[in-house]
Amino acid sequence: MAVPDGLGQWVLGQAIEVPGPVFLLATFEVGRWEVGRLDSVELGAPVFLVQTMDQAVRDGRWEIVGRRTPDVGIEVPRYLVPVGLGGELSVQDIYGEVVGPATAEDVARLGPYKSYSPALVERALAARAGAEEWLDRFDEMLAAGRCK
Description:
The protein is α+β, with helices and mostly antiparallel strands.
């Protein structure tokens, strides 16, 4: 999908997983691309990897420009969730399913579930392009370190 970057340009975004009205979005810096010819575009590593709502897609602000199978190197995030009365932590997948108890490594690496509004995603893209000030909260939206 084409997502505005705040400078009048478009960033290529891809829905990686769509468990409902909130979906996992990866954005890429690819320069120009041709609508309908996305299979030939070299995506590289995503810049941002965020859970966001589909409102910008439904209202047409983010235009679907083609379909492409997601790169298997993009790791679908998992989250820490408290389970039970004792405050034990478990790991939850993007679909809301608890997949098991959290290990010490999970506790050190994973965080709580977070979703970002399309407007905040657009502000992060604008900041990345130099059109807006970079906010600390944009750091947690970066894909670096979360992809294989």
